[in-house]
Amino acid sequence: MIRKMEAKRTTTVLGALAVAILCTGLAAGAQKPFSIVDKWKIGGEGGWDYLLADSAAHRLYVTHGTRVEVLDTMTGKSVGAITGLKGTHGVALDDAGKFGYISDGRANAVVVFDRASLATVATIPAGTNPDGILFEPVTKTVWAFNGASKDVSVIDTASRKVIATVALPGKPEFPAADGAGNVYDNIEDKGVIVRLDAKSPKITATWPLGLESPSGLAIDRAGHRLFAVCDGKKMGVVDYLTGKVIATPAIGDGPDATGYDATTGLAYSSNGEGTLTVIDAKGGYKVLQTLPTQPGARTMAWDDATGKVYLVTAEFGSKPAATAANPRPRAPVLPDSFTVLVVGR
Hints:
Elements: H1 2-30, E1 35-41, E2 48-54, E3 59-64, E4 67-72, E5 78-82, E6 88-93, E7 99-104, E8 109-114, E9 120-125, E10 130-136, E11 141-146, E12 151-156, E13 161-167, E14 172-177, E15 182-187, E16 192-197, E17 202-208, E18 217-220, E19 225-230, E20 234-239, E21 245-247, E22 255-261, E23 266-271, E24 275-280, E25 286-292, E26 299-303, E27 308-313, E28 339-344
């Protein structure tokens, strides 16, 4: 009897040790640093703005000048492109897997495309220079945030018509939706976030960030948080139930996009200086890693399916001298250098 009890105790201890070793291994694996694991050259000409990962379909939509590139996220190969546009900014996808929506800023329009064929099926007039765009699932509407006219065009996806135009207190940037009928948007020139009720539709709150020029915006729906990347090398973390800023972790310079991984609790900031900031959003908002990427890689997409971050940038020529007409000139993009950077562990 004593031998049996000793054997059982030994087995229990060994089992506990095995579990501890396994957990330690998993924890160590979770702390493995990020790196650039692949580069997919797209080439062509023109600038770029936002990109979006469709995790379910394993596709990456990349706005690129007068077209939207569509890539397979598993291989990096081109699936096709939506062409014939004038100046693309963002892409939104419906929740039925059928249609996508592109903010064509220079055309002052939202372009609807079939996600199976990538063919354009409709063009909807919007405000002036639509930029950030999203699909709101409760009302089945698309929201196009117009940078120049400082308002948002609310589009009914069934009729494909603008059903409301809501004035905003300044220049809008990237939006986010909480899935419960609220839409949030950074107002870049005012340093605030607005909350809009999708059903009304109208502004229901305006929250000062105390930070400069918020642009990219990500959302943690379970934790009721917004992550706004700002100038001044700061990310504003906002409780979207109260509007309070709960943290301002450090990030790199020149950010324009952000992402949040609900599985690991990591938040990301893609910075134009050529870095990706990785923040532990579950453990005190500490910076876990500052990964060198490539200058100009200021926009990103997080993909739940692959566990990877996708960034885009290109090679640049010499910056021209400043003039009165163009006091802040940009360096020209070198032809055929447009590239997707794939970041993973």
